[in-house]
Amino acid sequence: MDAEGDIAHGDWLGTVDVGGAVRMTSLLGGLAGAHTVRRLELAVPTMEPALLRQVLLPVVWDALGVPHTRQEWAERFQRGRFSDSEVEQLNDYLGPRYGDRFRLFDEERPFAQVAGLQALNGEAKSAGQLVPSIASGNNVPLFSGVSEGEEVLLPPEQAVLWLLHAHCWDTASIKTGAVGDPQAKNGKTTGNPTGPLGQLGVIVPVGENLFETLMLNTPVLAAGLDPADRPQWAWQERAAALGWKSPASPEWSSRPTGGLLDLLTFQARRIRLIPCQTEQGLRVHRVIVCAGDRLTRTPQEDPHTAWSHTAKPKARQPAQRPRRHVSGRSAWQGLSTLLALALPVESDGPFTSVLLRQASDLGADGTLPATYRLGVEICGFEYGTQSAVVENAIGDSLPLPVTSLLAEDPWMREAVLDCVYRADQVARALDNLNNDLRRASGGDPLPRDKGQRPSSRLLHSLDTTMRRLLAGLCTIGVDEDRLEQAQHAWQQCLRTAAVREADALLAASPPRAVVGRVEKTNGKEVVYRSGKAVGLFYKKLTETLTLLARAEEDAA
Predict the structure, then answer these.
(1) Whole-Å CA distances, 525 to 442, 483, 517, 518
(2) E strands within 168-237?
(3) By C-alpha distance, which of 394, 283, 397 is closest to 40?
């Protein structure tokens, strides 16, 4: 990357090609050769949606337009790469048209920053403020390897990624007031929400290479993009027309989005990177992060989140709200949300993202073959203390059979959800066994919010098995006999893992659990003994794992 930090043509984007080789490329090079890129090489899972939304997708959509019909989408997808003419359009977009807007250290228009931004207190903070895993201000991770007092030197190729990450995921803490911001008081601004993605449970469909991933994240819009909708690097004219604040100025406003391009490149912070020259070359050592635009509400068109529907919302409460991920749960445990294709109009419940619903339609008309290896990546942040600190990062991925997304033929979806449901029921039975053994030993049940539950160990031990199951289901197409075999094999694995955990719990119980004790519950005496607890557990196991019970009956 040159002294101006040209991200359009300078090498900064880490990629892994289809042969497994890691290489650095430019924005233009990455898009032109997207069909040869297996995946992006990024520091953390939350960086991928930031990069897709803030740069890759808006550039492709604004330069080439979005498909107007599923047929047009299919033609692009089946071509497997950007055509020569499309590469020329991208080259023009990132060259003569907007090339000067993609320079990280440009004096007049630095990319995704405010030129000459100054803090009211005259100070600039360590570049570590951009990195959530580095201690800075109120955000003090428990195992941070760098203290706030140490100097952090970010190479330009890392600085641009963390810059985009901050616009999407920054904490909701008090921000330094900026010179020229009339809403700053006493040198600071308060009431800042997290970055837009911090309020979502992000869901990103992925393909077998970067080109397919870009297409799977591109919506079909019959009317196309709003001509007045612009990405942040071309937003000044639209902002002036609407009376909104330009993202290139220290002023900001609370506002809705102006369209998908504006949504994806939303500038939730006003930032300035301050570089210095070192023996290793140009490095970003200081940064100013101030308040930016505030999104009044996440629009229903946001492509990267599932939704919670409330049939009877309270006053001023929207009927649909973004659904966030729960830490400690694998992605496959949330398949009931990922595969919720229909809006539950008359009841409360989840429904999946715009893009997975689109993948359902593309699978139904054969554009996505039944055996296509569709993947899903999820990520999110769990914030604490008024969202001013990052407590936990969530990131996971899994293969997803296209046939499970078919709304008109739900047999695969029902089978996949049945596997998840039975795992959940067995996990509950194991927790009940643990609580009954604790009572039989003279103790109390494990509190809901304390301690590690045996169900957590069980589900964790099944994680690899479930991923192998889903990967296998991606290859069987519409073969229902093989599907039932897969379900039977899953129940066998489930029983084996559950029995192993149950035996460990029983072995850890003291001898007094055999004799047990009597408790009064609602005026009735209830006997708790280890033998009774184990009997109830195996009864529940038999009731839940019906395919195994049926096979045993047939064998008898």
Answers:
(1) 15, 46, 10, 6
(2) 175-176, 188-189, 202-206
(3) 397
From residue 409, how far is each of 26, 70, 398, 404, 469 by CA, in Å? Answer: 43, 20, 22, 9, 20
Please, are residues 62 and 218 in contact by the beta-carbon 8 Å criterion? no
- Cβ atoms 291, 181 nearer than 8 A: yes
What are the φ/ψ torsions at residue 136 (nearest 5 degrees)? -160, 120
Q: Are 141 and 134 in contact (CB under 8 A)?
A: yes
> Per residue in 159-187, pLDDT tens?
999 999 999 999 998 999 999 999 999 99
**Do 219 and 303 touch, CB atoms closer than 8 A?**
yes
What end-to-end distance do the CA atoms of the chain give, in Å? 72
Q: Which two tokens stand for residue 116?
A: 């000459």
Helices 411-440, 530-544: inter-axial angle, 10-degree rounding: 180
pLDDT digits (tens, 9 = 90+) for 448-494: 777 788 999 999 999 999 999 999 988 887 677 888 999 999 999 99
Here the tokens at position 58 are 């808006």
